Amino acid sequence: MELSDYLAIARKRWVSIGALSIAGLAGALGVSLLTTPVYTATTQLFVSVQGGGSSSDMLQGANFTRQQVASYTRIVTSPLVLGPVIDDLGLGIRASELAQNITSESPLNSSLVNISVSDPSPAVAAALANAVAAEFRDVVAELERPTDGSPSPVKLTVVRDAAAPISPSSPKTGTNAALGLLVGLAIGIGTALLREILDTSIRSESTVAQVTDTAVVGVIAHDESATSRPLIVQSDPHSPRAESFRRLRTNIQFLNVGSRPSSIVVTSAVPGEGKSTTTINLAIALAEAGSRVVLVDADLRRPAVAKYLGLEGTAGLTTVLIGRATVSDVAQPWGNGMLHVIPSGQIPPNPSELLGSRAMSVLVDGLVNEYDIVLIDTPPLLPVTDAAVASKWAGGVLVVVGSGKVHRNQLTEALGALETVGAHTLGIVVNREPRKRASSYEYYRYSSDERGKGRGASEKSNPRVPLEGPASHGSATRKTGAIDVVRATQTEAPAAWPATGLSEDLLAEEREGLPPQHLRGERHR
């Protein structure tokens, strides 16, 4: 992994890293606050040798004290020194217990002895340090006394008396807080790296590139309102998510320009990746561009197209495949009349057999001859074989990958299933990819608030053209071979203008002044 990969992981997992860092800081502060403060008082003694006044005598005495001072520091915590101190102060503890709170040390190449005593009370710590220093002087003098009874040549002088400390020596709250923060940060980073290594789910376009060489032809950003507004191209055509579907439409239109597939199967690896809503929005976007599109709901296990589009789904694909209806009986126009929808019909007991039948092949061929684009929504690849079977009759397959819904091995297995049946995988559509607001092209929205409100209000009504039979206004019937397809022309009444300052009469006058190529509906010749 490169540095950029680590930075990407840190940005992705910054919440958990920050939470663990704060937890480490809070834990360290909590321990520091709950720990009883301990104060340390220190006294210092100087060791010298009484002797002659010549320089040689003084040098010998200095060397002697430096050699002996290391042994003297060990005497400080001995019962010989601490026993009398305990008796004098009436502490009521043993010498070994008191020795745990006393430290003695001598700086390198010096004749100094530092005695430090720790206690929860600063006054007690200072009193103990001074008492130990006084008893230590007496013990050393007694140990160094010559056998003839003359005074000891070793002299210990207190150069600094112990004073009651103002601040505690422990706990060190600042140091503990810094250490707790660093430990929490290290644990957070380690946890983030571990989660990234163990996480095999596909969450972005870059992850797809690590799994397969199949091109990513579209990326649909995650939208919190996708559940309430699944048909975003129709409900909010100026939104960034709607523009993502238009970019997907453009990419598909430029796939294999020499032999562009007219029939496309749309599927996914596992359920819940958003293949049906992706197919519907793509169909609407293609119809907006002027292509004649037919959307076939071939998910004969969990059909969803009719429900999303508000259509009657009792009669549909299965009805045509078993020979009880023709396409003209079940195809329903939707929107501007360039999009026709064939619902799934009733759920059969043998979906795979129907989709792999000769009747399905004839149906797809007829639709390809009649329409510019045929989109076929099929079940996921891994649970059932329907999509792999239906891909035999299509010119290509689009695989929808839901961010965080599918794992790498599942995508590999799904693409392998398509390769096994010889299907042509056109590309992959990454759906619900999480992105920051700054990267979601929010600033590309170029419409006024009034227009956006008016459009949203006018498009909440059902935009599909109702099926009223051959006599329905604005509809015509075209036959090609055995297929009868009902087509609706674009002569429906235009939606009400959302602005408030213009009347319909004024708009009619303005319309009369336009050249024929700018008029909606059929051109005047």
From TrEMBL:
<keyword id="KW-0472">Membrane</keyword>
<keyword id="KW-0067">ATP-binding</keyword>
<feature type="compositionally biased region" description="Basic and acidic residues">
    <location>
        <begin position="448"/>
        <end position="462"/>
    </location>
</feature>
<dbReference type="InterPro" id="IPR025669">
    <property type="entry name" value="AAA_dom"/>
</dbReference>
<comment type="similarity">
    <text>Belongs to the CpsC/CapA family.</text>
</comment>
<dbReference type="InterPro" id="IPR050445">
    <property type="entry name" value="Bact_polysacc_biosynth/exp"/>
</dbReference>
<keyword id="KW-0547">Nucleotide-binding</keyword>
<keyword id="KW-0808">Transferase</keyword>
<keyword id="KW-0829">Tyrosine-protein kinase</keyword>
<dbReference type="Pfam" id="PF02706">
    <property type="entry name" value="Wzz"/>
</dbReference>
<feature type="domain" description="Polysaccharide chain length determinant N-terminal">
    <location>
        <begin position="2"/>
        <end position="89"/>
    </location>
</feature>
<dbReference type="InterPro" id="IPR027417">
    <property type="entry name" value="P-loop_NTPase"/>
</dbReference>
<keyword id="KW-1133">Transmembrane helix</keyword>
<protein>
    <submittedName>
        <fullName>Chromosome partitioning protein</fullName>
    </submittedName>
</protein>
<dbReference type="InterPro" id="IPR005702">
    <property type="entry name" value="Wzc-like_C"/>
</dbReference>
<keyword id="KW-0418">Kinase</keyword>
<keyword id="KW-0997">Cell inner membrane</keyword>
<keyword id="KW-0812">Transmembrane</keyword>
<dbReference type="Pfam" id="PF13614">
    <property type="entry name" value="AAA_31"/>
</dbReference>
<comment type="similarity">
    <text>Belongs to the etk/wzc family.</text>
</comment>
<keyword id="KW-1003">Cell membrane</keyword>
<feature type="region of interest" description="Disordered">
    <location>
        <begin position="448"/>
        <end position="525"/>
    </location>
</feature>
<dbReference type="InterPro" id="IPR003856">
    <property type="entry name" value="LPS_length_determ_N"/>
</dbReference>
<feature type="domain" description="AAA">
    <location>
        <begin position="264"/>
        <end position="386"/>
    </location>
</feature>
